[in-house]
Write a structure and sequence with these properties.
The complex is a heterodimer. By secondary structure, chain A is mainly alpha-helical. Chain A contains four helices and no strands. Chain A starts with a helix and ends with a helix. The chains are: A mainly alpha, B mainly alpha.
Chain lengths: 81, 202
């Protein structure tokens, strides 16, 4: 019985972390995670994973020359329209 | 192709040049870096990324009348870029045909409901991964799966937005994201093992 609950909770960890969990399910979910060390470990692992993907992947920026060239081109198209 | 579901309160070609300019300045240009990062992560090539971003803005100009002012410009532009990528770049890429992934996904979905069948790693393992390793791991997973990680974890789009950008149901967004994350965790696990980390759950 308890294992079944854990299974369901673990399935829903990504939903919670992705901000996709329905409001009414959040308190029950958090209550379980708070008191079940196994689920808490999984929650920590998933959260850390999501955090490092967001924070540590280098973000590339567009070169200023390309940005300028795109803006110039659009300006020319707008002037003609 | 870029249809919207809600009714527009203006007729076609009703935008003046200065209104269009304002849309570009206030809504389209601010996401240029995000578009470029997305394009680079998809193509893994600077020239191709440059072409894709440029093409996206030219298409945005061409289809601007179908854009609803004040709605989600970022999602709209990401969708245009993703479609251009599929049409122009995937054809000439060496990656296996998309149907291969669809098959994989179907098999995966048919054994579904096993979201808990995740790759389990201790959170310390993730904490030890360097940005370069993570980037390399992300770049090495198949593009359909890389794409959904980019949209979700890097750009923070909702499942519904991703469903529209990619053109797949929300349920598929969820299962594909799950699969993509497992692939990425597998890569990180391999890296951690080579570095001598103890990777398994205690």
């Amino acid at each position: 019985m308890k294992d079944n609950t854990c299974l369901k909770v673990v399935d829903k960890i990504p939903l919670y972390l992705d901000g996709e969990m329905p409001e009414n399910e959040i308190p029950i979910f958090l209550e379980h995670v708070k008191y079940c060390s196994k689920c808490m470990d999984k929650y920590d692992s998933e959260r850390t994973f999501k955090d490092i993907v967001r924070e540590r992947c280098e973000r590339r920026c567009i070169s200023s020359s390309l940005a300028d060239s795109i803006k110039n081109r659009i300006s020319m198209l707008l002037a003609r329209s | 192709m870029y249809e919207t579901t809600t009714t527009r309160n203006y007729t076609l070609s009703s935008l003046t040049a200065s209104q269009k300019n304002r849309i570009f300045e206030t809504e389209f240009y601010p996401v240029m870096d995000a578009l470029y990062n997305f394009a680079f992560r998809l193509t893994l090539n600077e020239d191709d990324a440059n072409d894709l971003v440029q093409e996206t803005y030219l298409k945005a100009f061409r289809f601007i009348e179908t854009y609803q002012v004040g709605t989600n410009a970022k999602a709209w532009l990401f969708r245009i870029l993703k479609n251009s990528f599929i049409n122009d770049f995937r054809k000439k890429s060496k990656e296996p045909d998309k149907t291969d992934y669809d098959e994989v996904e179907q098999i995966y979905n048919s054994e579904d409901a096993h979201y808990s069948a995740t790759v389990d790693l201790r959170s310390e393992v993730f904490s030890g991964v360097l940005g370069d390793e993570l980037s390399a791991a992300l770049n090495s997973i198949p593009v359909d799966f890389r794409l959904i990680i980019l949209l979700s974890d890097i750009e923070g789009f909702t499942y519904e937005e991703m469903s529209k950008i990619i053109g797949i149901p929300i349920g598929t967004v969820r299962s594909r994201l799950h699969r993509a994350r497992n692939m990425l965790k597998d890569m990180i696990k391999g890296y951690a093992q080579r570095m001598g980390y103890k990777v398994d759950e205690a």
